[in-house]
Specification:
Elements (H helix, E strand, L loop, with lengths): L1 H5 L7 E4 L8 E4 L14 E7 L4 E7 L9 H12 L16 E8 L8 E6 L2 E6 L2 E7 L2 H19 L4 H4 L16 H8 L2 H10 L3 E3 L7 H7 L19 H8 L4 H6 L10 H4 L4 H12 L1 E2 L1 H8 L5 H11 E4 L2 E4 L1 H4 L13 H17 L2 E2 L1 H8 L3 H11 E4 L3 E4 L5 H6 L1 H22 L3 H4 L3 H11 L2 H33 L55 H22 L1 E3 H13 L13 H10 L2 E4 L11 H4 L1 E4 L7 H11 L7 H12 L5 H8 L1
Parallel strand pairs: 1-7, 2-8
Antiparallel strand pairs: 3-4, 3-9, 4-5, 5-8, 6-7, 10-12, 11-12, 13-15, 14-15, 16-18, 17-18
């Protein structure tokens, strides 16, 4: 107790377990370098990996202009390795040792005790490591130099052989047929060192693309180091009640478990289900039911269950579609499994089912032939996907099996908003994998109208019209009384009379014309259960509320400035992608969620000192209009401003320019001769 008083607790930190990069995150340990050189300055020429062996090879450029570099030694090594001739097979094409290869070896066989940690805003996010690899310099170029040396010596010793010596003597050969290999001999051969080396050599290299620390894709991948719950302790492994924690420390004995009656493996009673942790209960229920409203899920979990904890757990195993929860594809199709119909691996099945789920976030109807044409899967697999979440209608297609859950959407706008961001990421992946066209991205008008009629009955239309008339009448009367009171308070001596002012009183009847404008967005524009007009901070007719304009402009300007200081040149398409990623990292209710149009974003880019570069792309290009709009930071305040401006003017005249033309133009305009590294830095 005395020690505890001397060492008080200063701060408690919430710990979250991130699973987005599970079995994908590696730790690379580089060799020690001088303190003046960091790996951000090193240029990665190429990288490749053998995933099964966890073997990596990196090829890095050597700074030959560094004063510590011995040029004569580099030329000698290149000469020994490649000889005097230079061709495509040469290791060093510049006749100088200007690169070095690093090979990896496993630093630890068991890495389950290690994790990468990120600390942000009082939260510690942990991601388990899949491997720890130590990179060491590879000296295979010395073996190549020795082979060249032996070849030269053999050529010198052999000399010109005569024709008689060149002719081989005729020799008798004996042909033998090998006996069948026994099982014991085969096992010895499989376990031999030569066989294992051959198996490792047969695995193909997977070439990788290296992205720098400040690249936008690196920033995108770093977001996966944070827990997807964004401030919610979604990982049930870290949330245990005292009784559950005691059960983990002292599990029940084996004899007690054997006394329980045996049940079929695919049957689980509700009594047994409620003995499991909450996360396992939700996973089992969603895996069996597949589609469920939140209210039904709460009723199955029993009274006294915390809705907040249920929301944390259900987001791990399900996605929100039209206000209802649909089980995730990777829960139904785990890794290393395949389709029982076609044998297609689980990864392909998950992509196809995600496409079906995404289509239902856009519309209530899905056509089976369209899904099969896009996913290229067999009809049986597509039918399984549709039967999980929809019902077949004759001559219409497949309709989502549950009605739109308006109550859940109104009660939990933050969950709906977070799910919408997840669907935006899934849509981007599907567009890249399936090359989706515009007809796939937008719901058909006829289908939207039919779903609209199914959702809203005539009685509902009448009731909503009545409520709107009453609301308008009450608002007009309140405004009139307010104006009347203000005029009396401003001039108390004056006797104000309003004989000619009357509020038009219209009878509320069924025969009056209905205003159905409130119903327009009920089904059309439905994205993951979120209406476009929902929320008080949404723009009205393209304009933000007056009090929010300044704050939104400041936040938008800060984002644009910081982005262009890192990237310098961006297309409108890439800028919008980065802005959506930025929105996904913001907390719910942030001012930027009020709605930012493309025009507002482009105007802010021009206001922050950037210019649009009119690059003359070829007319037959397949790029989208947003990809053809190029913006660049004109003045960054560094020593390369003039060089960048010259380079941007060059690209405003031609979309493809040779490197020597760029270097000559930079030298003429700037009045100085730039070396290769300086030109590379400007181009980068």
């Amino acid at each position: 107790m005395a020690n505890e008083e001397d060492d008080p607790i200063i701060q408690e930190i919430d710990v979250f377990l991130a699973r987005s990069l599970l079995e994908k995150l590696y730790l690379f340990q580089y060799p020690i370098r001088p303190a003046s050189m960091t790996y951000d300055d090193v240029t990665h020429l190429s990288a490749k990996i053998k995933p099964k062996q966890q073997k990596v090879e990196l090829e890095m450029a050597i700074d030959t202009l560094n004063p510590n570099y011995c040029r004569s030694k580099g030329e000698q090594i290149a000469l020994n390795v490649d000889g005097t001739c230079t061709d495509e097979t040469s290791t060093y094409s510049s006749k100088l040792m200007d690169k070095q290869t690093f090979c990896s070896s496993q630093a630890a066989s068991n890495v389950s005790r290690y994790a990468a940690a990120v600390y942000k805003k009082g939260e510690l996010h942990l991601t388990p490591l899949h491997g720890i690899l130590q990179l060491r310099p590879s000296f295979t170029y010395l073996d190549k130099a020795d082979a060249k040396h032996r070849e030269r010596e053999a050529a010198n010793e052999g000399g010109d052989s005569s024709q008689d010596e060149a002719e081989d003597d005729v020799k008798q050969i004996t042909v033998r047929f090998s006996r069948p290999e026994t099982e014991q001999a085969r096992q010895r051969r499989v376990q031999s060192y030569e066989f294992l080396q051959k198996r490792q050599a047969e695995e193909h290299w997977v070439h990788l693309h290296y992205y720098g620390l400040k690249d936008s894709r690196s920033e995108h991948e770093r977001q996966y180091l944070f827990s997807q719950g964004h401030g919610l302790a979604e990982n049930t492994e870290l949330i245990k009640s005292p009784s559950e924690y005691l059960m983990m420390l002292m599990p029940p004995s084996v004899e007690e478990e054997n006394d329980k009656p045996m049940a079929p493996s695919n049957v689980l009673s509700m009594a047994q289900l409620r003995t499991l942790p909450l996360a396992d209960q939700i996973k089992i229920l969603m895996k069996n039911v597949k589609v469920m409203p939140f209210a039904n899920l709460m009723s199955l979990l029993g009274s006294g269950t915390d809705p907040t904890a249920v929301l944390r757990c259900v987001q791990q195993v399900a996605l929100l579609v039209q206000g209802n929860w649909v089980v995730k594809s990777d829960v139904l199709y785990p890794k290393d499994t395949s389709s029982p119909h076609s044998g297609v691996p689980a990864e392909v099945l998950c992509r196809g089912r995600d496409f079906v789920m995404w289509k239902f976030t856009q519309d209530r109807w899905v056509v089976r032939k369209e899904v099969a044409a896009v996913t290229k899967l067999c009809p049986e697999d597509v039918k399984d996907f549709l039967e999980h979440m929809s019902v077949a209608r004759i001559n219409k297609g497949w309709e989502f099996m549950l009605p739109y859950d308006e109550d859940f959407v109104k009660k939990h706008p933050d969950i709906v908003q977070r799910q919408q961001m997840l669907w935006m990421g899934i849509q981007a992946k599907l567009e890249k994998v399936y090359n989706l066209l515009k007809e796939h991205l937008t719901p058909k008008k006829q289908e939207a109208q039919s779903a609209h009629q199914l959702l809203v009955s005539g009685e509902q239309r009448v009731n909503m019209a009545k409520a709107k008339v009453k609301q308008n009448y009450g608002q007009l009367e309140k405004e009139f009384q307010k104006q009347k009171a203000e005029m009396k308070s401003n001039d108390p001596s004056a006797k104000t009379d309003f004989p000619n002012i009357r509020i038009k009183e219209e009878p509320v009847s069924v025969e009056e014309p209905m205003d159905t404008s409130a119903l327009e967005g009920l089904n059309n524009g439905l994205v993951n259960g979120l209406h476009p007009a929902q929320g008080s901070s949404e723009p009205v007719n393209g304009h933000l509320p007056g009090g929010c304009i300044d704050r939104v402009a400041q936040e938008l300007k800060a984002f644009v400035s910081s982005t262009f200081k890192k990237q310098f040149v961006l297309t409108l398409s890439e800028l919008k992608r980065l802005f959506n990623l930025h929105l996904a990292s913001l907390p719910p209710g942030h001012t930027l969620f009020s709605g930012i149009s493309d025009k507002m974003l482009q105007d802010m880019v021009l206001d922050t000192g950037c210019k649009q570069i009119l690059v003359p792309f070829p007319p037959q290009t397949a790029a989208s209009p947003d990809e053809l709009k190029v913006y660049a930071l004109w003045e960054a305040g560094d020593t390369y401003d003039q060089h960048r401006q010259v380079l941007l003017e060059i690209f405003s005249k031609n979309y493809r320019v040779r490197r020597n033309v760029i270097q000559n133009q930079l030298s003429q305009e700037c009045g100085e001769d730039l070396n290769k590294q300086e030109v590379d830095r400007v181009l980068k």
